[in-house]
Protein backbone atom coordinates (compact mmCIF):
# COMPACT_ATOMS: atom_id res chain seq x y z
CA UNK A 1 0.00 0.00 0.00
CA UNK A 2 1.07 3.54 -0.71
CA UNK A 3 2.15 5.71 2.16
CA UNK A 4 1.65 9.32 3.15
CA UNK A 5 5.13 10.82 3.34
CA UNK A 6 4.39 14.52 2.93
CA UNK A 7 1.46 16.72 4.00
CA UNK A 8 0.42 20.33 3.48
CA UNK A 9 -1.99 22.16 5.74
CA UNK A 10 -4.50 24.74 4.57
CA UNK A 11 -5.18 26.54 7.83
CA UNK A 12 -3.14 27.21 10.97
CA UNK A 13 -5.77 27.27 13.72
CA UNK A 14 -6.49 24.94 16.64
CA UNK A 15 -7.15 21.82 14.56
CA UNK A 16 -4.36 22.43 12.02
CA UNK A 17 -1.85 23.08 14.81
CA UNK A 18 -2.65 19.90 16.70
CA UNK A 19 -2.73 17.72 13.59
CA UNK A 20 0.38 19.20 11.96
CA UNK A 21 2.39 18.61 15.12
CA UNK A 22 1.06 15.05 15.38
CA UNK A 23 2.08 14.26 11.79
CA UNK A 24 5.44 15.96 12.24
CA UNK A 25 6.22 13.95 15.38
CA UNK A 26 5.59 10.74 13.46
CA UNK A 27 8.26 11.67 10.93
CA UNK A 28 5.95 12.85 8.17
CA UNK A 29 7.29 15.86 6.31
CA UNK A 30 5.13 19.00 6.43
CA UNK A 31 5.54 20.95 3.18
CA UNK A 32 3.31 24.02 3.42
CA UNK A 33 1.28 25.80 6.08
CA UNK A 34 -1.21 28.23 4.59
CA UNK A 35 -3.00 30.95 6.52
CA UNK A 36 -4.32 34.27 5.21
CA UNK A 37 -2.34 35.84 8.07
CA UNK A 38 1.33 35.20 7.40
CA UNK A 39 2.28 35.50 11.09
CA UNK A 40 -0.05 32.64 11.99
CA UNK A 41 1.21 30.49 9.13
CA UNK A 42 4.80 31.23 10.11
CA UNK A 43 4.23 30.43 13.79
CA UNK A 44 3.05 26.92 13.00
CA UNK A 45 5.45 26.43 10.07
CA UNK A 46 8.38 27.14 12.39
CA UNK A 47 7.24 24.38 14.74
CA UNK A 48 6.98 21.72 12.05
CA UNK A 49 9.75 22.71 9.64
CA UNK A 50 7.36 23.82 6.88
CA UNK A 51 7.07 26.76 4.50
CA UNK A 52 4.56 29.46 5.46
CA UNK A 53 2.32 30.86 2.71
CA UNK A 54 -0.46 33.45 2.85
CA UNK A 55 -1.33 33.72 -0.82
CA UNK A 56 -3.31 30.66 -1.99
CA UNK A 57 -2.53 31.29 -5.65
CA UNK A 58 1.15 30.68 -4.87
CA UNK A 59 0.48 27.14 -3.72
CA UNK A 60 1.26 24.32 -6.14
CA UNK A 61 0.80 21.12 -4.15
CA UNK A 62 3.42 18.39 -4.36
CA UNK A 63 2.45 16.70 -1.04
CA UNK A 64 0.81 13.27 -0.84
CA UNK A 65 -1.95 14.65 1.39
CA UNK A 66 -3.57 18.07 1.80
CA UNK A 67 -5.41 18.72 5.06
CA UNK A 68 -7.90 21.59 5.03
CA UNK A 69 -8.65 22.93 8.48
CA UNK A 70 -10.44 26.22 7.87
CA UNK A 71 -13.76 27.65 9.00
CA UNK A 72 -16.40 25.84 6.93
CA UNK A 73 -17.64 28.97 5.18
CA UNK A 74 -14.25 29.93 3.69
CA UNK A 75 -13.18 26.46 2.50
CA UNK A 76 -14.46 26.97 -1.05
CA UNK A 77 -13.07 30.47 -1.43
CA UNK A 78 -9.57 29.29 -0.47
CA UNK A 79 -9.48 25.90 -2.22
CA UNK A 80 -10.66 27.33 -5.52
CA UNK A 81 -7.39 29.32 -5.69
CA UNK A 82 -4.99 26.48 -4.91
CA UNK A 83 -3.39 24.05 -7.36
CA UNK A 84 -4.21 20.75 -5.63
CA UNK A 85 -2.84 18.62 -8.52
CA UNK A 86 -5.08 15.70 -7.61
CA UNK A 87 -3.37 15.10 -4.28
CA UNK A 88 -5.50 13.32 -1.67
CA UNK A 89 -7.52 16.25 -0.27
CA UNK A 90 -9.22 15.91 3.12
CA UNK A 91 -11.18 18.33 5.26
CA UNK A 92 -11.45 18.14 9.06
CA UNK A 93 -14.98 19.40 9.53
CA UNK A 94 -17.91 17.66 11.18
CA UNK A 95 -20.40 19.51 9.02
CA UNK A 96 -18.95 19.47 5.50
CA UNK A 97 -20.17 16.76 3.15
CA UNK A 98 -16.96 15.34 1.69
CA UNK A 99 -18.37 15.22 -1.83
CA UNK A 100 -18.17 19.01 -1.89
CA UNK A 101 -14.39 18.57 -2.31
CA UNK A 102 -14.84 16.61 -5.55
CA UNK A 103 -14.47 19.75 -7.64
CA UNK A 104 -10.90 20.31 -6.35
CA UNK A 105 -9.42 16.82 -6.63
CA UNK A 106 -10.28 13.35 -7.90
CA UNK A 107 -9.20 12.00 -4.53
CA UNK A 108 -10.95 13.48 -1.54
CA UNK A 109 -12.32 12.69 1.87
CA UNK A 110 -12.31 13.59 5.52
CA UNK A 111 -9.93 13.28 8.44
CA UNK A 112 -12.00 14.22 11.50
CA UNK A 113 -10.50 14.08 14.98
CA UNK A 114 -13.37 14.07 17.47
CA UNK A 115 -11.82 16.28 20.09
CA UNK A 116 -11.71 19.88 21.18
CA UNK A 117 -8.42 21.57 20.41
CA UNK A 118 -6.69 24.75 21.45
CA UNK A 119 -3.45 25.86 19.83
CA UNK A 120 -1.95 26.37 23.29
CA UNK A 121 -2.30 22.71 24.33
CA UNK A 122 -1.08 19.79 22.28
CA UNK A 123 -3.56 16.92 22.79
CA UNK A 124 -2.30 13.36 22.74
CA UNK A 125 -4.42 11.82 19.98
CA UNK A 126 -3.86 8.25 21.08
CA UNK A 127 -7.22 7.96 22.86
CA UNK A 128 -9.01 10.33 20.48
CA UNK A 129 -11.41 8.94 17.87
CA UNK A 130 -10.29 9.73 14.33
CA UNK A 131 -13.08 9.34 11.79
CA UNK A 132 -11.95 8.95 8.19
CA UNK A 133 -13.74 8.86 4.85
CA UNK A 134 -12.53 8.81 1.24
CA UNK A 135 -14.08 8.41 -2.19
CA UNK A 136 -12.17 5.20 -2.93
CA UNK A 137 -11.54 2.19 -0.73
CA UNK A 138 -7.84 2.48 -1.51
CA UNK A 139 -7.69 6.00 -0.11
CA UNK A 140 -9.90 5.03 2.83
CA UNK A 141 -7.32 2.39 3.73
CA UNK A 142 -4.53 4.90 3.23
CA UNK A 143 -6.18 7.39 5.60
CA UNK A 144 -6.84 4.65 8.15
CA UNK A 145 -3.22 3.56 8.05
CA UNK A 146 -2.05 7.15 8.44
CA UNK A 147 -4.51 7.91 11.27
CA UNK A 148 -3.35 4.80 13.13
CA UNK A 149 0.11 6.36 13.39
CA UNK A 150 -1.20 8.50 16.22
CA UNK A 151 -4.61 7.16 17.27
CA UNK A 152 -5.71 3.71 18.34
CA UNK A 153 -9.34 4.66 17.67
CA UNK A 154 -9.64 4.99 13.92
CA UNK A 155 -13.12 4.46 12.45
CA UNK A 156 -14.53 4.88 8.96
CA UNK A 157 -17.61 7.10 8.99
CA UNK A 158 -19.72 8.66 6.23
CA UNK A 159 -20.64 12.35 6.00
CA UNK A 160 -24.22 11.91 7.27
CA UNK A 161 -23.21 10.09 10.44
CA UNK A 162 -20.35 12.50 10.98
CA UNK A 163 -22.71 15.44 10.91
CA UNK A 164 -24.91 13.84 13.60
CA UNK A 165 -21.86 13.11 15.68
CA UNK A 166 -20.63 16.66 15.26
CA UNK A 167 -23.93 18.03 16.56
CA UNK A 168 -23.69 15.71 19.57
CA UNK A 169 -20.14 16.91 20.13
CA UNK A 170 -21.24 20.52 20.22
CA UNK A 171 -23.78 19.66 22.91
CA UNK A 172 -21.35 17.56 24.86
CA UNK A 173 -18.33 19.79 24.63
CA UNK A 174 -19.27 23.38 23.88
CA UNK A 175 -22.39 23.51 26.03
CA UNK A 176 -20.95 21.60 28.99
CA UNK A 177 -17.87 23.77 28.80
CA UNK A 178 -19.92 26.94 28.90
CA UNK A 179 -22.06 25.71 31.76
CA UNK A 180 -19.13 24.60 33.88
CA UNK A 181 -17.11 27.74 33.16
CA UNK A 182 -19.94 30.02 34.22
CA UNK A 183 -20.61 27.92 37.33
CA UNK A 184 -16.96 28.11 38.27
CA UNK A 185 -16.94 31.85 37.74
CA UNK A 186 -19.95 32.19 40.02
CA UNK A 187 -18.19 30.16 42.73
CA UNK A 188 -15.14 32.37 42.48
CA UNK A 189 -17.26 35.51 42.83
CA UNK A 190 -18.82 33.97 45.95
CA UNK A 191 -15.50 32.88 47.47
CA UNK A 192 -16.47 29.21 47.23
CA UNK A 193 -13.58 26.85 46.60
CA UNK A 194 -13.75 25.08 43.25
CA UNK A 195 -12.61 21.89 44.95
CA UNK A 196 -15.96 21.73 46.76
CA UNK A 197 -17.45 20.88 43.38
CA UNK A 198 -15.00 18.18 42.32
CA UNK A 199 -16.60 15.06 43.75
CA UNK A 200 -20.04 16.25 42.71
CA UNK A 201 -18.80 16.69 39.16
CA UNK A 202 -17.26 13.21 39.07
CA UNK A 203 -20.53 11.68 40.28
CA UNK A 204 -22.52 13.76 37.79
CA UNK A 205 -20.44 12.62 34.85
CA UNK A 206 -20.71 9.01 35.99
CA UNK A 207 -24.49 9.16 36.47
CA UNK A 208 -25.23 11.03 33.30
CA UNK A 209 -22.85 9.36 30.94
CA UNK A 210 -21.98 5.88 32.03
CA UNK A 211 -25.44 4.81 33.20
CA UNK A 212 -28.15 3.57 30.83
CA UNK A 213 -31.36 5.65 30.72
CA UNK A 214 -29.54 8.48 32.46
CA UNK A 215 -32.47 10.85 32.05
CA UNK A 216 -34.45 8.88 34.62
CA UNK A 217 -31.74 9.73 37.17
CA UNK A 218 -32.32 13.46 36.83
CA UNK A 219 -32.58 15.18 40.23
CA UNK A 220 -32.96 18.75 41.48
CA UNK A 221 -35.63 21.41 41.89
CA UNK A 222 -36.66 21.50 38.21
CA UNK A 223 -36.99 17.70 38.14
CA UNK A 224 -39.27 17.89 41.21
CA UNK A 225 -41.20 20.85 39.81
CA UNK A 226 -40.13 22.89 42.82
CA UNK A 227 -40.75 26.27 41.20
CA UNK A 228 -40.61 28.08 44.55
CA UNK A 229 -36.93 27.16 45.04
CA UNK A 230 -36.10 27.85 41.39
CA UNK A 231 -37.61 31.32 41.57
CA UNK A 232 -35.85 31.97 44.85
CA UNK A 233 -32.55 30.95 43.26
CA UNK A 234 -33.21 33.10 40.20
CA UNK A 235 -33.84 36.15 42.37
CA UNK A 236 -30.77 35.36 44.51
CA UNK A 237 -28.78 35.42 41.26
CA UNK A 238 -29.79 39.03 40.52
CA UNK A 239 -26.15 40.16 40.79
CA UNK A 240 -24.88 37.33 38.57
CA UNK A 241 -26.83 37.96 35.36
CA UNK A 242 -24.92 35.43 33.23
CA UNK A 243 -25.40 32.56 35.61
CA UNK A 244 -28.98 33.72 36.22
CA UNK A 245 -29.73 33.54 32.49
CA UNK A 246 -28.39 30.02 32.07
CA UNK A 247 -30.03 28.93 35.33
CA UNK A 248 -33.40 30.10 34.11
CA UNK A 249 -33.06 28.72 30.58
CA UNK A 250 -32.06 25.19 31.55
CA UNK A 251 -34.46 25.02 34.50
CA UNK A 252 -37.25 25.80 32.04
CA UNK A 253 -36.11 22.99 29.71
CA UNK A 254 -36.06 20.48 32.58
CA UNK A 255 -39.45 21.66 33.85
CA UNK A 256 -40.88 21.19 30.35
CA UNK A 257 -39.30 17.74 30.09
CA UNK A 258 -40.71 16.39 33.34
CA UNK A 259 -43.83 18.49 33.88
CA UNK A 260 -45.31 18.83 30.42
CA UNK A 261 -45.11 22.61 30.05
CA UNK A 262 -47.04 23.10 33.30
CA UNK A 263 -44.62 25.73 34.65
CA UNK A 264 -43.42 28.94 33.08
CA UNK A 265 -40.54 30.75 34.79
CA UNK B 1 -16.96 15.55 74.08
CA UNK B 2 -20.45 14.09 73.80
CA UNK B 3 -21.12 11.56 71.09
CA UNK B 4 -23.99 10.87 68.70
CA UNK B 5 -25.13 7.33 69.48
CA UNK B 6 -28.68 7.36 68.12
CA UNK B 7 -30.31 9.13 65.18
CA UNK B 8 -33.84 9.49 63.82
CA UNK B 9 -34.62 10.44 60.23
CA UNK B 10 -37.54 12.58 59.18
CA UNK B 11 -37.82 11.60 55.52
CA UNK B 12 -36.99 8.44 53.57
CA UNK B 13 -35.98 9.79 50.15
CA UNK B 14 -32.66 9.86 48.30
CA UNK B 15 -30.75 11.90 50.89
CA UNK B 16 -32.27 10.18 53.96
CA UNK B 17 -31.58 6.74 52.50
CA UNK B 18 -27.92 7.45 51.77
CA UNK B 19 -27.28 9.15 55.12
CA UNK B 20 -29.21 6.62 57.24
CA UNK B 21 -27.23 3.76 55.71
CA UNK B 22 -23.96 5.64 56.26
CA UNK B 23 -24.74 6.22 59.94
CA UNK B 24 -25.95 2.64 60.38
CA UNK B 25 -22.76 1.21 58.87
CA UNK B 26 -20.70 3.17 61.38
CA UNK B 27 -22.54 1.50 64.26
CA UNK B 28 -24.87 4.37 65.10
CA UNK B 29 -28.34 3.17 66.09
CA UNK B 30 -31.19 4.42 63.89
CA UNK B 31 -34.34 4.83 66.00
CA UNK B 32 -37.07 6.11 63.73
CA UNK B 33 -37.63 6.58 60.01
CA UNK B 34 -40.56 8.87 59.25
CA UNK B 35 -42.28 9.19 55.88
CA UNK B 36 -45.86 10.14 55.18
CA UNK B 37 -46.00 6.96 53.07
CA UNK B 38 -45.56 4.02 55.44
CA UNK B 39 -44.22 1.72 52.69
CA UNK B 40 -41.33 4.11 52.02
CA UNK B 41 -40.58 4.51 55.71
CA UNK B 42 -40.68 0.72 56.17
CA UNK B 43 -38.40 0.05 53.19
CA UNK B 44 -35.62 2.16 54.64
CA UNK B 45 -36.34 1.18 58.28
CA UNK B 46 -35.86 -2.48 57.32
CA UNK B 47 -32.43 -1.72 55.95
CA UNK B 48 -31.17 0.08 59.03
CA UNK B 49 -33.00 -1.75 61.83
CA UNK B 50 -35.27 1.18 62.68
CA UNK B 51 -38.96 1.70 63.42
CA UNK B 52 -41.09 3.04 60.54
CA UNK B 53 -43.62 5.79 61.34
CA UNK B 54 -45.99 7.70 59.06
CA UNK B 55 -47.84 9.79 61.63
CA UNK B 56 -45.64 12.67 62.87
CA UNK B 57 -47.76 13.20 66.01
CA UNK B 58 -46.74 9.72 67.16
CA UNK B 59 -43.06 10.66 67.23
CA UNK B 60 -41.53 11.47 70.61
CA UNK B 61 -37.80 11.83 69.98
CA UNK B 62 -35.32 10.12 72.29
CA UNK B 63 -32.43 10.13 69.77
CA UNK B 64 -29.30 12.28 70.16
CA UNK B 65 -29.70 13.63 66.63
CA UNK B 66 -32.67 14.22 64.33
CA UNK B 67 -31.94 14.52 60.62
CA UNK B 68 -34.64 16.18 58.52
CA UNK B 69 -34.40 15.28 54.84
CA UNK B 70 -37.71 16.42 53.36
CA UNK B 71 -38.62 18.68 50.47
CA UNK B 72 -37.99 22.23 51.73
CA UNK B 73 -41.60 23.33 51.48
CA UNK B 74 -42.99 20.62 53.80
CA UNK B 75 -40.31 20.85 56.52
CA UNK B 76 -42.35 23.20 58.72
CA UNK B 77 -45.63 21.34 58.33
CA UNK B 78 -44.02 18.07 59.46
CA UNK B 79 -41.68 19.38 62.19
CA UNK B 80 -44.45 21.36 63.90
CA UNK B 81 -46.20 18.05 64.68
CA UNK B 82 -43.19 16.19 66.12
CA UNK B 83 -41.98 16.19 69.74
CA UNK B 84 -38.28 16.99 69.19
CA UNK B 85 -37.53 17.30 72.95
CA UNK B 86 -34.59 19.60 72.31
CA UNK B 87 -32.57 16.93 70.51
CA UNK B 88 -29.94 18.27 68.12
CA UNK B 89 -32.07 18.95 65.01
CA UNK B 90 -30.38 19.29 61.62
CA UNK B 91 -31.71 19.76 58.13
CA UNK B 92 -29.93 18.62 54.96
CA UNK B 93 -31.00 21.37 52.59
CA UNK B 94 -28.84 23.75 50.61
CA UNK B 95 -31.53 26.42 50.64
CA UNK B 96 -32.95 26.44 54.19
CA UNK B 97 -31.53 28.99 56.61
CA UNK B 98 -30.76 26.94 59.71
CA UNK B 99 -32.22 29.55 62.03
CA UNK B 100 -35.68 28.58 60.79
CA UNK B 101 -35.32 25.41 62.90
CA UNK B 102 -34.94 27.46 66.13
CA UNK B 103 -38.65 27.21 66.84
CA UNK B 104 -38.46 23.40 67.07
CA UNK B 105 -35.36 22.91 69.24
CA UNK B 106 -32.82 24.90 71.21
CA UNK B 107 -30.12 22.97 69.40
CA UNK B 108 -30.24 23.12 65.64
CA UNK B 109 -28.13 23.25 62.53
CA UNK B 110 -27.37 21.69 59.18
CA UNK B 111 -25.74 18.52 57.91
CA UNK B 112 -25.37 19.05 54.18
CA UNK B 113 -23.69 16.45 52.00
CA UNK B 114 -22.71 18.09 48.71
CA UNK B 115 -23.53 15.25 46.41
CA UNK B 116 -26.31 13.97 44.19
CA UNK B 117 -28.06 10.92 45.62
CA UNK B 118 -30.42 8.29 44.31
CA UNK B 119 -31.98 5.72 46.63
CA UNK B 120 -30.89 2.97 44.24
CA UNK B 121 -27.17 3.68 44.60
CA UNK B 122 -25.36 3.99 47.89
CA UNK B 123 -22.65 6.64 47.49
CA UNK B 124 -19.40 6.30 49.41
CA UNK B 125 -19.28 9.56 51.34
CA UNK B 126 -15.55 9.41 51.98
CA UNK B 127 -14.66 11.85 49.18
CA UNK B 128 -17.89 13.84 49.50
CA UNK B 129 -17.85 17.29 51.13
CA UNK B 130 -20.04 17.43 54.25
CA UNK B 131 -20.88 20.98 55.29
CA UNK B 132 -22.03 21.38 58.88
CA UNK B 133 -23.44 24.25 60.89
CA UNK B 134 -24.92 24.51 64.40
CA UNK B 135 -26.08 27.28 66.73
CA UNK B 136 -23.40 26.52 69.34
CA UNK B 137 -19.73 25.78 68.94
CA UNK B 138 -20.19 22.66 71.05
CA UNK B 139 -22.76 21.25 68.62
CA UNK B 140 -20.71 22.37 65.64
CA UNK B 141 -17.83 20.28 66.99
CA UNK B 142 -20.20 17.38 67.66
CA UNK B 143 -21.49 17.48 64.07
CA UNK B 144 -17.96 17.71 62.69
CA UNK B 145 -16.88 14.71 64.74
CA UNK B 146 -19.91 12.72 63.57
CA UNK B 147 -19.49 13.72 59.94
CA UNK B 148 -15.84 12.66 60.04
CA UNK B 149 -16.99 9.10 60.72
CA UNK B 150 -17.77 8.77 57.04
CA UNK B 151 -16.25 11.75 55.22
CA UNK B 152 -12.72 13.09 55.14
CA UNK B 153 -14.00 16.41 53.77
CA UNK B 154 -15.91 18.01 56.63
CA UNK B 155 -16.19 21.81 56.54
CA UNK B 156 -18.13 24.29 58.66
CA UNK B 157 -20.25 26.59 56.48
CA UNK B 158 -22.91 29.18 57.26
CA UNK B 159 -26.37 29.32 55.68
CA UNK B 160 -25.59 32.15 53.28
CA UNK B 161 -22.52 30.47 51.78
CA UNK B 162 -24.37 27.17 51.66
CA UNK B 163 -27.14 28.68 49.60
CA UNK B 164 -24.64 30.03 47.04
CA UNK B 165 -22.96 26.65 46.91
CA UNK B 166 -26.30 24.92 46.46
CA UNK B 167 -27.11 27.12 43.47
CA UNK B 168 -23.71 26.30 41.96
CA UNK B 169 -24.42 22.62 42.57
CA UNK B 170 -27.70 22.80 40.67
CA UNK B 171 -25.87 24.27 37.69
CA UNK B 172 -23.04 21.80 37.91
CA UNK B 173 -25.03 18.68 38.57
CA UNK B 174 -28.64 19.05 37.44
CA UNK B 175 -27.94 21.02 34.29
CA UNK B 176 -24.90 19.04 33.17
CA UNK B 177 -26.82 15.85 33.86
CA UNK B 178 -29.72 16.98 31.71
CA UNK B 179 -27.47 18.12 28.90
CA UNK B 180 -25.43 14.91 28.82
CA UNK B 181 -28.51 12.68 29.11
CA UNK B 182 -30.22 14.36 26.17
CA UNK B 183 -27.01 14.26 24.11
CA UNK B 184 -26.66 10.55 24.83
CA UNK B 185 -30.27 9.93 23.87
CA UNK B 186 -29.70 11.74 20.59
CA UNK B 187 -26.64 9.58 19.87
CA UNK B 188 -28.62 6.43 20.55
CA UNK B 189 -31.37 7.54 18.19
CA UNK B 190 -28.71 8.13 15.53
CA UNK B 191 -26.93 4.81 16.09
CA UNK B 192 -23.77 6.56 17.23
CA UNK B 193 -21.80 4.71 19.87
CA UNK B 194 -21.65 6.49 23.22
CA UNK B 195 -18.00 5.51 23.49
CA UNK B 196 -17.20 7.90 20.63
CA UNK B 197 -17.94 10.68 23.10
CA UNK B 198 -15.86 9.45 26.02
CA UNK B 199 -12.50 11.02 25.33
CA UNK B 200 -14.15 14.27 24.27
CA UNK B 201 -16.02 14.38 27.56
CA UNK B 202 -12.87 13.78 29.59
CA UNK B 203 -11.10 16.60 27.76
CA UNK B 204 -14.12 18.88 28.17
CA UNK B 205 -14.27 18.35 31.91
CA UNK B 206 -10.53 18.95 32.19
CA UNK B 207 -10.62 22.14 30.13
CA UNK B 208 -13.69 23.60 31.73
CA UNK B 209 -13.10 22.69 35.31
CA UNK B 210 -9.46 22.24 36.08
CA UNK B 211 -8.14 25.15 34.05
CA UNK B 212 -8.14 28.77 35.29
CA UNK B 213 -10.20 31.23 33.23
CA UNK B 214 -11.94 28.35 31.52
CA UNK B 215 -14.37 30.62 29.72
CA UNK B 216 -11.56 31.88 27.50
CA UNK B 217 -11.11 28.30 26.23
CA UNK B 218 -14.65 28.15 24.86
CA UNK B 219 -14.76 26.73 21.32
CA UNK B 220 -17.46 25.84 18.80
CA UNK B 221 -19.78 27.54 16.33
CA UNK B 222 -21.48 29.81 18.89
CA UNK B 223 -18.10 30.95 20.21
CA UNK B 224 -17.06 31.82 16.65
CA UNK B 225 -20.41 33.44 15.89
CA UNK B 226 -20.90 30.93 13.08
CA UNK B 227 -24.68 31.37 12.90
CA UNK B 228 -24.86 29.61 9.54
CA UNK B 229 -23.68 26.31 11.05
CA UNK B 230 -25.83 26.75 14.16
CA UNK B 231 -28.95 27.29 12.07
CA UNK B 232 -28.05 24.36 9.87
CA UNK B 233 -27.69 22.18 12.99
CA UNK B 234 -30.97 23.44 14.42
CA UNK B 235 -32.81 22.55 11.22
CA UNK B 236 -31.05 19.15 11.07
CA UNK B 237 -32.43 18.55 14.58
CA UNK B 238 -36.04 18.96 13.41
CA UNK B 239 -36.81 15.33 14.34
CA UNK B 240 -35.15 15.65 17.76
CA UNK B 241 -37.18 18.44 19.34
CA UNK B 242 -35.75 18.05 22.84
CA UNK B 243 -32.14 18.22 21.73
CA UNK B 244 -33.07 20.97 19.27
CA UNK B 245 -34.52 23.08 22.09
CA UNK B 246 -31.48 22.78 24.33
CA UNK B 247 -29.16 23.29 21.34
CA UNK B 248 -30.89 26.53 20.47
CA UNK B 249 -31.14 27.83 24.04
CA UNK B 250 -27.49 27.33 24.98
CA UNK B 251 -26.17 28.43 21.59
CA UNK B 252 -28.03 31.71 22.13
CA UNK B 253 -26.46 32.14 25.58
CA UNK B 254 -22.96 31.58 24.17
CA UNK B 255 -23.62 33.91 21.23
CA UNK B 256 -24.75 36.62 23.69
CA UNK B 257 -21.68 36.03 25.85
CA UNK B 258 -19.12 36.38 23.07
CA UNK B 259 -20.92 38.54 20.50
CA UNK B 260 -22.79 41.10 22.61
CA UNK B 261 -26.35 40.23 21.58
CA UNK B 262 -25.44 40.66 17.91
CA UNK B 263 -27.13 37.41 16.83
CA UNK B 264 -30.67 36.22 17.47
CA UNK B 265 -31.46 32.57 16.61
The strands making up the biggest β-sheet of chain A line up spatially as 3-2-1-4-5-6-7-8
Helix content of chain A: 40-55%
Q: Describe the main β-sheet of chain A briefly.
A: 8 strands, mixed
- Averaging pLDDT over every residue of chain A, what do you get? 94
Describe the structure.
The structure is a homodimer of 265-residue chains. The first copy, chain A, contains nine helices and eight strands. Chain A is an alpha/beta fold and 265 residues long. An eight-stranded mixed beta sheet of chain A has the order 3-2-1-4-5-6-7-8. In chain A, strand 1, helix 1 and strand 2 (29-34) form a beta-alpha-beta unit. In chain A, helix 8 packs antiparallel against helix 9 (241-259). At the A-B interface, helix 5, helix 6, helix 7, helix 8 and helix 9 of A face helix 5, helix 6, helix 7, helix 8 and helix 9 of B.
Summarize the structure.
The structure is a homodimer of 265-residue chains. Chain A is α/β, with parallel strands linked by helices. In chain A, 43% of the residues lie in helices and 14% in strands.
